[in-house]
Structures are given as structure tokens and as C-alpha cells.
Write a structure and sequence with these properties.
single chain, alpha/beta, Collagenase (Catalytic Domain), two-stranded antiparallel sheet, 11 strands, about 20% strand
Length: about 240
């Protein structure tokens, strides 16, 4: 039996950053996401809840950077919205009626039919039309939890949207392994990878987020004028257990 895999190739010995352009965080700390259509495998409300839960999970790992849902993606630049589509057996994401346009369809740039066993594909930020888009193979049977007959939609989606930042890893049990294994989860490897890719943006956002800035002012480094002339010794103001841990 062939292993069920994600679409991306390459398995580095540890985390590595994905190719493409850096994400352009709105106001330095957030981006949007939008679910464009639905799978027939699950009630629509369950899919909406599952997508929100996945982004909530990612937001905890990226704090204070975060993703927000938007019901009007057309009001934002394409590179500011992570777009999620379910792709039917004909290779199209069926988006329904849009105003005067009937049965709007979007051709998936990845050929799932020619790549059997591929669950989904994520295109990172770039200059290509499909940038910031996740296409999920609806030929697979999707459920909220993995079973012998189905695949976990939340697990697939979390892995794919992490490809906005990271490539695959060989770290044991990590969410970014190339082969689908629903027992995988966030390990220190992926957390290190997110810090490597987003560390500067996260630190900048901390200084510009009111709650985070208060923590920084209360517990961040404070200069103490006890060093040699012309030098400053830095030490923490207070000990603190960070509230988001």
C-alpha cells in the first residue's frame, strides 16, 4: 500500500523554511483567512468550526502574530488572505453563484488525479496567481477525526497552512513530516522553525501590541547603570511565567 502523502517534496534532516516571499503582516501582526467552498463529506458548520480551530491552534504558536477570518476577501490584497479550497474530482473548486455569475469554478493548479494519494497542496506567498492558497483533495473522504476509512480535515489543514512558513522535516512525530500520520503533532522542531522564520516579526509585534507591550515593560530587560563607564548592564525587571505558554 502506498503511503498517503502531502504534496510537497523533500525531507530535510530538520526544519527548513519554505521558499517564496516573506509574509507581509497587516499592521505588523495579522493576516486574514477565508474558506471559499465546502466538502460534501461534512456539514458546513463543522467545516467552518474546524477551520477556525486550526487557525486558533496556529495563532497560539505564532503569538502575537495571528490570522483572522474575513467574509470579504475581495476587499483585501491577495497576499493578505490565506485562501482555502476543496477540489472536486474534475479538478475544480466549485464556488457556487457569485452575483450574476453562475456556477463559478476555479481550476486547481495541482493535478490531484495525476498524483494519487496526495491529500492537499499549499502555495506559499509568491508572485504566482495561486500564492497563499491551500487546495484540499475532495476525492479523499474527509472527517473531523482520522479513521481507517477517512482522513482528518483539521490535521491536513494544519500541516498545509504551516507550509506558508516551513518545508518538511524528519523530526520524529512532528506535524511537518511528509507522510500523513495523524498521531504527529507540534514538536520543538516546528516551534524552532516558526521562530526562525517569524522571530523578528513576532518581536516587533510584541512591542506594538498593547497587552504584549505591557508585559515587555513590566518584565522585559531593564538597564542598570552599574557597569564600567560607558557601558550598561542589562537584567530582567521581574521574573515572569509568560501567560501564553
Amino acid at each position: 500500500m502506498t503511503d498517503i502523502q502531502y504534496s510537497c517534496a523533500g525531507q530535510p534532516a530538520r526544519f527548513s523554511k519554505i521558499g517564496g516571499k516573506p509574509l507581509e503582516w497587516i499592521d505588523g501582526n495579522f493576516l486574514y483567512f477565508h474558506l471559499y467552498n465546502f466538502s460534501p463529506d461534512l456539514p458546513e458548520f463543522q467545516q467552518v468550526a474546524a477551520v477556525k480551530e486550526v487557525f486558533d491552534r496556529l495563532n497560539r504558536e505564532l503569538y502575537p502574530l495571528h490570522f483572522r477570518s474575513t467574509g470579504h476577501p475581495e476587499k483585501h490584497a491577495s497576499h493578505q488572505v490565506e485562501k482555502i479550497y476543496f477540489v472536486a474530482a474534475d479538478g475544480y473548486a466549485h464556488l457556487g453563484d457569485k452575483g450574476d455569475l453562475k456556477d463559478v469554478r476555479l481550476k486547481c493548479p495541482f493535478d490531484f488525479k495525476a498524483n494519487p494519494g496526495t491529500l492537499a497542496v499549499q502555495y506559499p506567498n509568491s508572485n504566482r496567481k495561486a500564492a497563499m492558497s491551500c487546495f484540499i483533495n475532495d476525492r479523499m473522504y474527509l472527517t473531523l477525526k482520522h479513521s481507517d476509512e477517512s482522513h482528518s480535515l483539521p490535521f491536513i489543514l494544519l500541516h498545509e497552512i504551516l507550509h506558508m512558513f516551513l518545508d518538511h522535516t524528519r523530526a520524529p512525530g512532528d506535524i511537518m513530516n511528509a507522510v500523513y500520520a495523524p498521531g504527529n503533532k507540534f514538536t520543538q522542531d516546528s516551534r524552532d522553525g516558526l521562530m526562525h522564520v517569524c522571530g523578528e516579526a513576532r518581536l516587533a509585534a510584541i512591542r506594538n501590541t498593547p497587552w504584549s507591550n505591557w508585559i515587555w515593560e513590566q518584565y522585559g530587560p531593564a538597564p542598570i547603570d552599574e557597569g564600567p563607564p560607558g557601558k550598561t548592564i542589562i537584567q530582567p525587571k521581574k521574573k515572569c511565567r509568560w501567560p501564553w505558554k
